[in-house]
Amino acid sequence: MITISTSDIQHLASLSSLALTDDETDGLRQDLENIIGYIEQLGELDVSGVEPTYQVTGLSNVWREDEVQAGIPVEELLDLAPEKQNNQVKVPQVL
Predict the structure, then answer these.
(1) Which parts of the chain have pLDDT scores under 50?
(2) How far apart are CA 73 and CA 76, in angstroms?
(3) Strands annotated E in 16-86
(4) Which of 4, 19, 29, 47 has its CA 20 to 30 A from that of 61?
(5) How does 30-50 read in b/e, with b if 16+ C-beta sit within 10 Å?
């Protein structure tokens, strides 16, 4: 069984920008020890006859050639813009 120290919890809390009371630190320490203990129990299971499951839906990647397809002409898209200048959409200045 792994033991987590109070300083470990305080370090994790500082990395997470959390302010924990002493009671919360002790509770979190106990919860993390229980979680890690459960994970250690799972490591003891005999899974020698079980195949790994990577994909359960039967789907696979579909690859296609990367080809340029005809789209909407630039002029038609620019006609949709409220303002345009130099063949570009004019937008309000941000800075």
Answers:
(1) none
(2) 5
(3) 84-85
(4) 47
(5) eeeeeeeeeeeeeeeeeeeee
